[in-house]
Amino acid sequence: METPSTGIADSGSIEKAVIEILEEMTKEWDTDFSGRIGPGTRLMQDLTLESIDIVMLIVAIEERFGKKGLPFDTLLMEDGRYVEELRVSQIAGFLKAHLPPAGGQA
Hints:
Layout: H1 11-26, H2 51-65, H3 73-76, E1 77-78, E2 81-82, H4 88-98
Antiparallel strand pairs: 1-2
Helix pairs in contact: 1-2, 1-4
């Protein structure tokens, strides 16, 4: 029997976790991005993430939330092509839709 994680999916905690993961990943990168990572931050344009970085981000997200096999292809592809840009808010929305709700509420 699978044990539910403690309060996984409320919007604020999901977004905060994604931001923390991205901050950890990029903290020593030399980029022109000078603001704080937030919901509107663009992964490719602002943080200069490349394909391998997206893979590392997915692995980190799955580890953080204890949920493997999330359908990230639905987030990363549109009409059979890879999306050109993703925002933090899009990732958080995707996770909210695919993770069990916090406290068992939808």
